[in-house]
Amino acid sequence: QVQLVESGGGLVQAGGSLRLSCAASGRTFSTYAMGWFRQAPGKEREFVAAIRWSGGSIVYANSVKGRFSISRDNAKNTMYLQMNSLNPEDTAVYYCATKQSPPITVATIGYGNWGQGTQVTVSS
């Protein structure tokens, strides 16, 4: 079992930046990839980005490509999401999750060990 804790959310003005963190503990050695998802009020949870834990593969949703950057620090068992040029459409609760086997996919199915989420609010 892997436990995930997100942090770094907050309120920011449009055009601003935030960096989210996802700290992992437990049986992290069995993790193939980790991903960020988000869920806005009244909408389904959607894929944002994912990274292979051993490095080499990164996938972004088209809506964040060029603005968001995902990275990980294996020594700290932590994944990050640097979010730049934020706009109100990025407002959501952001979650991290793990994937135990390849390939990296964009659907929530296949991901588990969901964190509790961190709120990101972008004001116009």
Main beta-sheet strand count, sense and barrel state: 7 strands, mixed
Strand content: over 45%
Alpha carbon gap, first and last residue:
40 Å
Radius of gyration: 13 Å
Assembly state (oligomeric): single chain
- The average pLDDT score comes to 95
Number of strands: 11
Q: Specify the helix fraction band.
A: under 10%
The computed structural class is mainly beta
Q: What is the molecular shape? A: globular
The topology string of helices and strands comes to: EEEEEEEEEEE
Write the layout of secondary structure elements.
Layout: E1 2-7, E2 10-13, E3 18-26, E4 33-39, E5 46-52, E6 58-60, E7 68-73, E8 78-83, E9 92-99, E10 111-112, E11 118-123
Parallel strand pairs: 2-11
Antiparallel strand pairs: 1-3, 3-8, 4-5, 4-9, 5-6, 7-8, 9-10, 9-11
